[in-house]
C-alpha cells in the first residue's frame, strides 16, 4: 500500500474574511496542501503558528493589532523553520521591503493566480525565495537608497568579495536569474551557483531578495543604474 505524503501545512493570515476564505478554497482541494488555520491579525497569526506549526504562513502585510511585518519578524525569531509568504494589494509597497528584511521568503500581489500561489508556497517551503525579478527590482529601487551624495563604494563586506562575485551580485540586483548570469558572464551554470553560495555567505544574506536589498543599500547599484530600467530591458 502506497504511503500518503503529508501535505504542506499552510496558515492563512488576513484581516478580510472573504480573502481568507478565498485562499482556503484555492488551496484545500489540492492534496499537496493542508490549511491548518486562519488568522485575522498578526498577533493571532503568531499565536496560531506557534500552536499549529505550519510549514508556510501566507501573510497579509496590512493587518490590525500586529501587522504582517511585525508578525513575520516574530515568526523568524521564534519559528525559523516556518516560512512566510507575504501578500500585498499593491506591487509598489514599502511594507513588502520591510517584510523581506524581517524574514519573509517572498511576496506576491493579492491578485495572483491560483497556480502561481500554489507554486510559490511549494517554493518557499523548500527554503527558496519567491520574488518576481522585475517586480523586486522596481520595488526596491523605489524604497531603498544609498545615502545621497555617496559615491558607489568599493564593496567590502565580512569577507572580501572577488571581482567575479561583485559582478554576480550586480547582475542579481538587475533581476537576472542564474541562466542569464551564466550567459552574460560566459561561465557555466554550476560556476554561477558556486559564486552565489560564496557571495551569500560573505554578505550574510539568506536569499536573492536580501542580496538585492543589500546591493541598493551598499551603493553597488542605484535606482538609475540597477533598478527597473535595466531589469525591464532584459525582460
Question: How would you describe the overall organization of this protein?
Answer:
It is elongated, with a radius of gyration of 18 Å. 51% of the residues lie in helices and 12% in strands. It is an alpha/beta fold. Helix 3 packs parallel to helix 4, helix 6 (133-143) runs antiparallel to helix 12 and helix 7 (163-173) crosses helix 9.
Task: Annotate the secondary structure layout.
Blueprint: E1 8-13, H1 17-27, E2 33-39, H2 42-52, E3 56-60, H3 68-78, E4 83-88, H4 94-102, E5 106-109, H5 114-125, H6 133-143, H7 163-173, H8 178-185, H9 189-203, H10 208-218, H11 223-226, H12 228-234
Parallel strand pairs: 1-2, 1-3, 3-4, 4-5
Summarize, please.
This protein is of the alpha/beta class. Strand 4, helix 4 (94-102) and strand 5 form a beta-alpha-beta unit. It contains 12 helices and 5 strands.
Q: Which key phrases capture this entry?
A:
235 residues, alpha/beta
| Number of helices, counting only DSSP H or I runs of 4 residues or more | 12
Count of beta strands? 5
Secondary structure class reads alpha/beta
- Succession of helices and strands: EHEHEHEHEHHHHHHHH
How is the main sheet built?
5 strands, parallel
Gap from first CA to last CA: 47 Å
* Shape, principal axes of CA atoms: elongated
Q: Please state roughly what percent of the residues sit in beta strands, choosing from under 5%, 5-15%, 15-25%, 25-35%, 35-45% or over 45%.
A: 5-15%
Unreliable spans = 146-154, 224-235
Amino acid at each position: 500500500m502506497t504511503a500518503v505524503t503529508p501535505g504542506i501545512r499552510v496558515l492563512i493570515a488576513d484581516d478580510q474574511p472573504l480573502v481568507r476564505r478565498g485562499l482556503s478554497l484555492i488551496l484545500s482541494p489540492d492534496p499537496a496542501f493542508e490549511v491548518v488555520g486562519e488568522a485575522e491579525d498578526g498577533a493571532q497569526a503568531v499565536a496560531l503558528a506557534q500552536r499549529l506549526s505550519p510549514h508556510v504562513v501566507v501573510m497579509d502585510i496590512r493587518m490590525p493589532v500586529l501587522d504582517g511585518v511585525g508578525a513575520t519578524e516574530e515568526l523568524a525569531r521564534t519559528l525559523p523553520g516556518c516560512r512566510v509568504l507575504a501578500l500585498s494589494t499593491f506591487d509598489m509597497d514599502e511594507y513588502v521591503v520591510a517584510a523581506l528584511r524581517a524574514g519573509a521568503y517572498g511576496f506576491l500581489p493579492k491578485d495572483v493566480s491560483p497556480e502561481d500561489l500554489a507554486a510559490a508556497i511549494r517554493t518557499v517551503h523548500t527554503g527558496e525565495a519567491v520574488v518576481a525579478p522585475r517586480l523586486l527590482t522596481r520595488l526596491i529601487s523605489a524604497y531603498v537608497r544609498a545615502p545621497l551624495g555617496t559615491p558607489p563604494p568599493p564593496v567590502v563586506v565580512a569577507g572580501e568579495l572577488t571581482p567575479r562575485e561583485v559582478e554576480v551580485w550586480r547582475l542579481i540586483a538587475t533581476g537576472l536569474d542564474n541562466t542569464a548570469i551564466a550567459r552574460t558572464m560566459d561561465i557555466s551554470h554550476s560556476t554561477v551557483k558556486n559564486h552565489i553560495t560564496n557571495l551569500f555567505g560573505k554578505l550574510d544574506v539568506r536569499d536573492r531578495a536580501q542580496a538585492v536589498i543589500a546591493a541598493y543599500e551598499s551603493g553597488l547599484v542605484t535606482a538609475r543604474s540597477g533598478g527597473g530600467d535595466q531589469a525591464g530591458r532584459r525582460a
